[in-house]
TrEMBL record, chain A:
It is found in: Endoplasmic reticulum membrane. Keywords: Endoplasmic reticulum, Membrane, Transmembrane, Transmembrane helix. The chain crosses the membrane at residues 30-50, 56-79. The keyword Glycosyltransferase does not apply. It is a multi-pass membrane protein. Pathway: Protein modification; protein glycosylation. Pfam families: DPM3. This is Dolichol-phosphate mannosyltransferase subunit 3.
TrEMBL record, chain B:
InterPro entries: DPM1-like (IPR039528), Glyco_trans_2-like (IPR001173), Nucleotide-diphossugar_trans (IPR029044). It holds the Pfam family Glycos_transf_2. This is Dolichol-phosphate mannosyltransferase subunit 1. GO terms for molecular function: dolichyl-phosphate beta-D-mannosyltransferase activity. It comes from Hibiscus syriacus. The lineage of its organism: Eukaryota, Viridiplantae, Streptophyta, Embryophyta, Tracheophyta. Transfers mannose from GDP-mannose to dolichol monophosphate to form dolichol phosphate mannose (Dol-P-Man) which is the mannosyl donor in pathways leading to N-glycosylation, glycosyl phosphatidylinositol membrane anchoring, and O-mannosylation of proteins. It is found in: Endoplasmic reticulum. It comes from the Eukaryota.
């Protein structure tokens, strides 16, 4: 509970609770996460559960996976990027309707 | 909150949007019948006759519905909002762009979402189903998506569209958040929503469509990317 409230943004909190909240700068949250992960890694090195040669490479694996995850998210997002070509048409209709109305009422709708 | 007592102040900063501001005013009135609202136009000394058109619109719709609060010259978006806020008499404030990329037809959905959830901020998102963008080429979409993934990874904001500027705020919340923001441009929009999120304000999203009509508006040169990265680092450190 403490862990999640430290890391999760407080979007579900009411404004009344706000003023007790969240003085921790985000970069510090990220750094503390890094410290925790490093401690786990050093712990693994000491405990030798996994062969040392593998453990030394874990940070590289971690960074590469993070990079791959990022690229994957960009790719997926790009493929699923929502577009709305019909909106351009609807907008043109709205513009025409607005221009007609305004012209009638004496508003100057010549172009910029 | 008694719906009948809500008033919405819509702040629209303009610069050389003589035609678009008239269209926007028409569309706002079309889509917000039965809603108590005012439109505050903050014009930064446009030389194209925007103010003349606004006077005509005031004659048509009433000076109490369209407030013209100009400034002498281009002074930036953040200060435009602050200036508009000073004259806002509503208990809610909407900010939107004047170039018709933000369509007033979404205003009722912002209002509805806020009333349903009691949120302090309702922000429009282009990146979810039901929303969308038109007028972006592949490169533009790629940089937008890449920037978004980077920002999500580094900042953990609780919104899907960080740089969007079509938002509804409770007036007191906007006053609070804007007083602590110092960035410029689209980083300013990011800073507003991230600071609001850190302060614990309840933020909801509604899908919006964004039609980019400014042809060739590639604001994505090398210097923009550097600005963006600097903005991200700044937000990581100070929020």
């Amino acid at each position: 509970m403490l862990f999640t409230s430290f890391y999760s943004p407080a979007s579900h909190w009411t404004p009344e609770l706000v003023f007790i909240a969240n003085p921790v700068k985000h970069v510090l949250k990220l750094l503390s996460l890094l410290v925790v992960i490093s401690a786990l890694w050093i712990g693994l090195l000491q405990a030798s559960i996994i062969p040392q040669s593998h453990t030394w490479l874990l940070p590289i694996y971690f960074i590469v996976s993070l990079g791959c995850y990022g690229l994957f998210m960009v790719g997926v997002g790009l493929m699923r990027f929502p577009t709305c070509p019909q909106e351009a048409l609807l907008l043109q209709q709205d513009i025409a309707e607005a221009k007609d109305f305004l012209k009638q009422k004496g508003v100057d709708v010549g172009s910029n | 909150m008694d719906a009948a007592k809500n008033k919405y102040s819509i702040i629209v900063p303009t610069y050389n949007e003589r035609l678009n501001i008239a269209l926007i005013v028409y569309l706002i009135f079309k889509h917000l019948r039965d809603v108590d609202f005012e439109i505050i136009v903050v014009d930064d000394g446009s030389p194209d006759g925007t103010r003349e058109v606004l006077k005509q619109l005031q004659d048509l719709y009433g000076e109490d519905r369209i407030l013209l609060r100009p400034r002498a010259k281009k002074l930036g978006l953040g200060t435009a909002y602050v200036h508009g806020l000073k004259h806002a008499s509503g208990n809610f404030v909407v900010i939107m762009d004047a170039d018709l990329s933000h369509h007033p037809k979404y205003l009722p959905s912002f209002i509805k979402k806020q009333m349903e959830t009691g949120a302090s901020i309702v922000t429009g998102t282009r990146y979810v189903t039901g929303g969308g963008v038109h007028g972006w080429n592949l490169m533009r979409k790629l940089t937008s998506r890449g920037a978004n993934v980077l920002a999500q990874t580094l900042l953990w904001p609780c919104v899907s569209d960080l740089t969007g500027s079509f938002r509804l705020y409770k007036k007191s919340v906007l006053e609070d958040v804007i007083s602590s923001c110092v960035s410029k441009g689209y980083v300013f929009q990011m800073e507003m929503i991230v600071r609001a999120s850190r302060k614990g304000y309840h933020i909801e999203e509604v899908p919006i469509t964004f039609v980019d009509r400014v042809f060739g508006s590639s604001k994505l040169g090398g210097s923009e990317i550097v600005e963006y990265l600097k903005g991200l680092i700044y937000l990581m450190i100070t929020t």
